[in-house]
Design goal:
Elements (H helix, E strand, L loop, with lengths): L1 E2 L1 H4 L9 H12 L6 E3 L1 H12 L4 H13 L3 E3 L3 H14 L3 H13 L3 E3 L2 H7 L5 E3 L5
Parallel strand pairs: 1-4, 2-3, 4-5
Length: 135
């Protein structure tokens, strides 16, 4: 499964559906699921935490914990960026968001997101699941 920053952020900040985000984390730790993420997620997470008034040390700790989870972290390739660009144009979303969708499409895995706008624009054509609907 692919997770976007809106889901992983809930591991560090209590928000709506944090319980579901933590269940995904626990399922991964228990070996029940695989998780792949684009390297873009690391930057997005650090940036949001910065605006949530986390200190540099707290951001470092949060980012380190993501690396310590040993996810498959995918770096961009020309094909991934090309696919993300096509999706972005067709779905009227950012290339950043489309990167998660493209990765899910590549791995034939669902993308879990808490971003309702992203879900609304993509779920009919791709395997995109809104976190609040995650079981």
């Amino acid at each position: 499964m692919i997770l976007d920053a809106s889901v992983i952020l809930k591991w560090f900040i209590e928000e709506k559906d944090t319980d579901k985000a933590l269940k995904i984390r626990d399922d991964y730790v228990a070996g029940k699921i695989d998780i792949e993420i684009p390297d873009l997620l690391i930057y997005e997470l650090a940036n949001v935490l910065r605006y949530k008034q986390f200190t540099a040390e707290e951001i470092k700790s949060a980012v380190k914990s993501i690396f310590d989870m040993d996810f498959l972290i995918v770096t961009p390739t020309p094909l991934l960026i090309y696919t993300a660009s096509k999706i972005a144009l067709a779905q009227q979303i950012t290339v950043y968001d489309a990167t998660y969708v493209a990765l899910a499409d590549y791995f034939n895995a669902p993308l879990i997101t808490a971003d309702k706008k992203l879900y609304e624009r993509t779920h009919k054509d791709y395997k995109v699941i809104l976190l609040s609907n995650y079981e």
